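Reposting from the mailing list since nobody answered there.

I have sequence plus structure tokens for a pair of proteins and want to know whether others read the tokens the same way I do. The first protein:
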Amino acid sequence: MGEDGRQEADRYEQEGREVGEMESVQERMERLGTKEKIATFMQKEKQPYEFKRKYAQIRAEEFASECDGRGLNYHVSVGGLDSIVLYLFLHEICHINAPGVSASTLEDKSIQRVHKALGIINVPPLKREDGTYWTKPRVIQEFGFPVISKEVAGKIELLQNPTEKNKTVRHAIITGETGAYGGWQKNSKMQLKQKWLKLFGGYENENEGCDYEKPDFKVSSKCCYYLKEKNCDDWGKEHNSVPYLGLMASEGGRRARSLRMNGCNYFGASTIRSAPFAIFHRQDILQLALEMDTLWKGGLKEKYHEKLLKENCLSNSFKMPDSIIPEIYGTIEKKPDGTLYTTKAQRTGCSMCGFGIHIEKRPHRFDLLHENNPKEWDYLMFHMCKDENGNDYGWAKVLEYIGVGWDPTTIGENCKGQMSLEDFID
């Protein structure tokens, strides 16, 4: 479960306090004027590209100025295309000299190459108690598979790990019924959608009198935490630095609610961050990517190459990429109606991540991995974990369980892995 989700679960788990001491979700939203804030933010999302571009610049510069006044440093959390564009936008348009930080080794090789060309700082995964680093297979073996979405995986993880403390939130996940903090709702958004309840709700059959199924594998949202979130957060603390993030509310989920409630720049008690592209849509980020790529091809590539060579951050043999758009995305092209799109991957991430796989058309990310790296595909599908009897298994088992096709020979011959309206509403 992401940070927002963990905080919400924690709040639900504090139901032992007396009702009179507690402010409900609805009361708090009314006091903070949340509905009005969201409505205002969504109006900005409807504005034309030039407005959004200028708005992003203003917010980014305001964040840097406020951090300077507070004695804080700032950096860019860099991953895929969106944050690569953000890094260049801050440096070349806003003239904000913020270092880029990334758990780069998790990304596709073509993304890693662009990171290297930009001088992005690579932060290693967290260390285990035995002194070795966490790896993708180790995290999944110990905690579970990252599947469906961060929010849903976090809820399933709670169901798989019941405690007296999380009893209230587990009840809300199954029934939608909340306690005092949730305002005694009957159909809250804490409840899993029926599709996922049917497959993962069986852990509460005895408690709730239901008849759902449960798998023989674990599900978790902890991969990001151990492999990139905590280590990058630790880097920030060590350097007294707070992040610029390439997040957009249009991507949906808990992040969307948080961005629309709190705006592009947020200075909270425990969290400080800037998301200059918060009001962007996909078309806006692709348009800006083309602009940054034009700068790259117009002399920026040579500028970065010379700078990084002087700083001994590159070897003389390193070949700078011709485009800041990593090869995994293909190129950015325009449809007859003017819509921009990437010719290959639309979104990227860790090669073994399953978040969102259920809404991808085939060939989906694992099908493409089979095409580009069949050896890694075979490992992820069949050998990355061991069951209690010591037998190998992997993503094939998980995908089969949630109804997503994985066999490359069946592409086009079945509807598994195809999107439906229900799938978009996790």
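The second protein, same order (residues first, tokens after):
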Amino acid sequence: MSHPLVMLLISDLSGRMRGKSVPVRGSEKLLEEGLGWIPANAALTCFGPMAKVENDALGELRLIPAENEPVSFFHEKLEIEQNWWIGKIVRMDGFPWECCLRSQLESALSLLQDRFQLQLEVGLEQEFYLTGRKDQLNTNSLEAFCEASDFLKAYAECLDSAGIEFKSLHPENGPGQYELSLPKMDPLKAADQLQLAKGIGRHCAARMNEHLTFSPIVSSVTIGSGLHVHFSLQDLEGRERNSIDGARISVPAGAFLAGILGNLPSLTAFNSPSMISAERYSPPRWTAYFNNLGMMDRRAAIRITRLGSGSPNIHFELRTADACASPYLVLSSMVYAGIEGLSRQMPCPPMHSTDDLLSGLTVPGVERLPDSLEKSLSNLMENETLLAYFPDEFIDAYLTNKRHEITLSKDFKGQALYDAYMKCY
């Protein structure tokens, strides 16, 4: 590592990465000592200003590395040399802080394993825009690839140097839109690697005078960008538990899906939590409109598919999340909802075509997704069952954060609101 500094990073309640940097020389001390952090940082909104909280100057926390070594990446031509260390936040007694999102995901996965002897494997796909392109051709075109070829090459080289494996990096459906796909892996590692990959992408873009944004909406007329979560249930020996015979959904998988879909109108407060996120939930954008299960239906909340898993058996794709959410919170909230379905032994929800639902089909338990952040937060506050999985301190801090984001967003009108979120994400 030739850069003299290493950055110790966490994903905060607003979905942004924050942290502190220290000299590389002697940084191994972070494993034991950590760095100071304050509880009031939970009130930092995506726009920057902190929500007002009582006793904001009180309290001590420690920011410590989550792994034994940092990740280093470099690009000689762009003069990039960086050392980043994924971190987590603990109290002074060493126990996880209630608002540490990485620790929450660890707890959710442990609960799934201990109570049901199940584990998850996930593959994450993150869409993004390169804005200000000269010729914004779309829909997987060769021209869109060639136009951004220098950036995509540099991005791929930096990911390779960081040891971050990816399945694809290609043009998507929107003008100037692209997608990074990561292979399936342990959920905690997947969230870590996505956080690093997003940061690396923005750093590369800045060095090349590009503007990259993971924001879910960049204008009122463009296709939205999502975070797609491909997931499979496994037993503790790694055997797939999605299906009975490679086609029919298994009993535990059905209960897990039912828990997610039944709680999805509340989960959107965690997995698509910005003032513009809900704009993706209506035609003609290819995102979920209802909390429905669909076979190979890219407008269903959860899609059953065989693509992208490396296996002929079915797996599942949650399509409601976006980059305004921390990937740790996207996954932990999904897991907790799935655990609720398993605990209640819920039957697998029937499949319903999104087209049929849009045409007027009414189905008990299937509803339109919330059309605003305010509605998502309201649903969450009414969902005592889901809230019980999270620490009270976290819920209070999260609601304070999001309510202040709503207040701050009122300063932006029209395209200015989209621009503000593009700067944040």
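Reply #1 (J.P.):
I read it the same way you do. The first helix runs from residue 30 to 33.
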